[in-house]
Specification:
Layout lengths: L1 H14 L3 E3 L5 E2 L5 E2 L1 E3 L8 H18 L5 E5 L4 H11 L3 E4 L12 E2 L7 E9 L3 H12 L3 E10 L3 H9 L4 E6 H11 L4 H12 L7
Parallel strand pairs: 5-6, 5-8, 8-9, 9-10
Antiparallel strand pairs: 1-4, 2-3, 6-7
Helix pairs in contact: 1-2, 1-6, 2-3
Length: about 210
């Protein structure tokens, strides 16, 4: 069931251009890395059909893995709307975590009503190195709540992120991933067989690729 869902999400991301693959004409990320892939999952919000697929997949994971969840937390800014959709589908309270505390007013890092001891599932849109996502987890923990796990739309599956989640003792579940996406792109003719090795090589050492 999960495998079918992973492929369905990957196909949806490709269909609406939330994920773009250009092995022969790489993108440059803000980090300076050269990459054959660019991912903007915010685009799912503009397409009701895929938005619903993503929302329902999120809700299914939370129900199956975290039936004791009491709060849904969206990571700013990309997963605020996703968090709200999932919280609404599950009938649960929702909060969101800023990338840094406000420099005015109450100086909040967490927006919404989070009580100590509450069990939280964190919603994220994209996992790259995992740094910003894990900062959000630590903010929830420092507020005295318990993080049951994180669920994200997509992960590149970098070894550095897998190690980081392990070190922070955070269970990560993603609706789809890089390997499934490449398979879906190949099946649909989005990429050619000759592009697959390039795409797989990039993932092994993205910081060195194309330099």
């Amino acid at each position: 069931m999960m495998e079918n869902s992973e492929e369905k999400v990957a196909q949806g991301l490709l269909k609406i251009g939330a994920v773009k693959l250009r092995p022969q004409e790489p993108f440059t990320w803000a980090s300076g890395w050269h990459s054959p892939i660019y991912c903007d999952n915010r685009k799912t919000l503009s397409y009701p059909e895929i938005r619903t697929v993503v929302r329902d997949a999120f809700a299914a994971v939370v129900k199956a893995k975290y039936p004791d969840a009491e709060v849904i937390a969206g990571v700013a800014t990309g997963a605020i709307a996703q968090g709200a959709l999932v919280a609404d589908a599950l009938g649960l309270p929702m909060i969101y975590i800023r990338s840094k505390a406000k420099d005015h007013g109450m100086g909040n890092l967490i927006e919404g009503d989070l009580k100590k001891g509450q069990k939280v599932v964190v919603i994220e849109d994209l996992i790259s190195t995992g740094g910003s996502s894990l900062k959000a987890v630590e903010a929830v923990r420092e507020a005295g709540a318990e993080v049951l796990g994180m669920v994200a739309i997509f992960t590149y599956g970098f070894p550095v992120s897998e190690m980081a989640f392990k070190e922070h003792q955070v269970e990560l579940t993603t609706l789809s991933n890089y390997n499934v996406l490449i398979d879906a792109a190949l099946k649909s003719g989005y990429v050619k067989e000759s592009d697959v090795n390039t795409l797989k090589e990039w993932r092994k050492a993205p910081e060195k690729w194309g330099v």
